[in-house]
Specification:
Length: about 475
């Protein structure tokens, strides 16, 4: 009956339509440029050194493999191998992964997920190399030594005593969750879950914004100001203690979404959505946040493209766990950010920068990497592009609004744009650049059906479980 209805009203398509926009994100072009930049960096940077942020003139600052950022360059190379299957990228990724192995025994940092799970964990997922698995499991064991059961969290820094916990640490929990599902002790799951509970309670404000740092008394387990500080709730890289540092907000969205992936517990999904909605509601027109959400909204205020990349990747995963308007909102927000990042305003094409993305802010307060290329921004940009491609490939023909249902809402979109140039979200389901009768036929064929959720929305089992990719 529904199909007959569409056949009848399909004649209404033969009307004038408004022009429709073209594909918003040129993924192929972005990856082609990334390939050029990454290959040049691999050739130029000595073994054992890793790009971190660009300096004046656009060249990378390249600390050793002991830096917290060392995993993001191999992560980018593994992303290229994942997309292309080209053994040359695997060779480069392996060469940049192996020197990081000694870091698996480090117990003086919380950044082991950033350092080793992005490199060895990703490599294990793509290659099945058992040595990579062993390194990642040891890294998880080292990270777990920093957990304080009284606090219910992993200590972030040793340079600000007695017990600081930063929201960035949510990102490192993936290493522990993965370990618990890949031969490590079940206590790693418990540690990661409890850390997320503590962070949700202490770092996330009621409105969904976030604190960067919360200090704890390691004996009582309660928040307590450190000597010289008036309050345990504070910032280190943000504008002020009560402001919201953009990248911290992005880390939180990503971390709580990932935690829901492993736990399937609704409070973690609720926290991820609360933070995501706050973030989206306060973005500027181009969807790239200023370095702090309370910084002046002016042309002279630095943006943070890396925060946008992290958030875009997180939003695409988050969209897989929700339905209806929320799903559409998160996809659209991620797509808008990727469109800006892949555009002339933020992609480094035609500039002297060695990075893929421009206009990141590492640490505004110390004037380090301000308005610069940032290696983690590049890495999560590529991850977001891969997730975006997967999402688009998962959609049923006719699902113009990408809500998983082919229904009258989609027909209305197609009707509005019929006869125009367009893209998927305007009703061009066959990719020929025009919304035409072939697209109407595709919608009619699938009308009343529900799309099979993309793999990213099923359970996103632990890294390496079955054959799921790290970015999922």
């Amino acid at each position: 009956m529904q199909s007959s209805m569409l056949t009848t009203i399909g004649l209404a398509l033969l009307v004038a339509a408004m022009p429709a926009p073209a594909q918003p994100v040129d993924v192929d072009a972005a990856f082609a440029f990334a390939a050029t930049q990454l290959a040049a960096t691999h050739a130029a940077v000595p073994s054992g050194r890793y790009p971190q942020h660009t300096e004046s003139g656009g060249a990378w600052y390249v600390p050793s493999s002991r830096a917290w950022t060392c995993g993001f360059f191999p992560m980018s190379l593994w992303a290229m191998y994942e997309r292309t299957g080209d053994s040359a990228w695997r060779t480069m990724a392996e060469a940049r992964t192996s020197p990081i192995a000694p870091d698996r025994y480090k117990t003086d940092t919380h950044d082991l997920g950033f350092m080793l799970h992005t490199s060895f964990g990703y490599g294990y997922t793509l290659t099945g190399n058992p040595n990579y698995r062993s390194v990642d499991l040891q890294a998880a064991a080292s990270l777990a030594t920093r957990y304080n059961a009284k606090v219910g969290a992993i200590k972030s820094w040793d340079f600000q005593e007695p017990f600081p916990v930063i929201i960035d640490n949510m990102m490192n929990l993936e290493l522990l969750f993965w370990s618990a599902e890949n031969g490590g002790p079940s206590s790693h799951y418990d540690i990661a879950r409890q850390h997320a509970i503590t962070t949700a309670r202490e770092h996330v404000r009621d409105d969904g914004s976030s604190y960067h740092v919360v200090d704890f008394n390691p004996t009582t387990g309660l928040p307590a100001a450190r000597p010289g500080e008036p309050d345990p709730y504070r910032t280190h890289q943000g504008l002020g203690d009560e402001t919201t540092w953009a990248r911290g907000q992005a880390w939180g969205i990503y971390g709580f979404t990932m935690t829901y992936r492993f736990t399937d517990e609704q409070p973690f999904l609720d926290t991820a959505q609360l933070m995501a909605d706050w973030y989206i509601d306060r973005l500027p027109a181009d969807s790239i946040p200023y370095w702090d959400f309370d910084a002046p909204a002016s042309p002279s205020t630095p943006r943070d493209s890396s925060a946008a990349a992290v958030a875009a990747s997180a939003l695409l995963e988050l969209a897989g766990y929700v339905d209806g308007d929320d799903r559409i909102r998160y996809i659209n927000a991620a797509e808008a950010a990727l469109a800006s990042l892949a555009g002339s305003g933020y992609l480094a094409a035609g500039t002297s920068s060695d990075a893929i993305l421009l206009h990141g802010t590492y640490n505004y307060n110390s004037n380090t990497g301000v308005d610069a290329g940032l290696i983690w921004g590049d890495a999560y940009f590529l991850e977001a592009l891969l997730r975006y491609e997967d999402l688009m490939a998962s959609l049923a023909d006719g699902d113009a609004d990408r809500d998983r249902d082919v229904d009258l809402d989609d027909f209305v979109i197609l009707k509005r744009n019929f006869g125009s140039d367009g893209w998927w979200t305007e009703g061009d389901f066959d990719g020929n650049g025009a919304v035409d009768l072939d697209d109407f036929s595709a919608l009619k064929r699938n009308f009343g059906t529900t799309s099979v959720p993309e793999p990213a929305s099923l359970t996103l089992l632990a890294l390496g479980a079955l054959t799921l990719r790290r970015r999922r």
